[in-house]
Write a structure and sequence with these properties.
Order of helices and strands: HEHHEEH
Largest sheet: 3 strands, antiparallel
Helix content: 55-70%
Number of strands: 3
Low-confidence stretches: none
Radius of gyration: 17 Å
Structural class: alpha+beta
Strand order of the largest sheet: 1-3-2
Length: 78
């Protein structure tokens, strides 16, 4: 395999992995809708440390695992 073909293959694999990883996160907007909050509230929770979020492509993402964990805890405490 030629060097540029190998590099292209690595790039394609990297893009596919990024797409897969991206699906494991909710955007601020989607989480705000899901929880009946505003985008600003979700961002404030991330900035204050109340909610774990990471920046993905310039936007915050909140892991599905984190969301599910919080929802399970809230259900138990209700």
């Amino acid at each position: 395999m030629k060097k540029h073909e190998t590099r292209n293959r690595e790039l394609i694999l990297s893009i596919e992995q990024t797409k897969q990883e991206q699906t494991k996160f909710l955007s601020v907007g989607k989480l705000a809708t899901r929880w009946g909050k505003t985008d600003q509230t979700i961002r404030a929770w991330i900035k204050s440390g109340k909610l774990n979020g990471i920046k993905l492509f310039g936007e915050y993402g909140i892991s599905i695992e984190e969301v599910n964990k919080i929802e399970r805890n809230n259900t138990r405490n209700s």
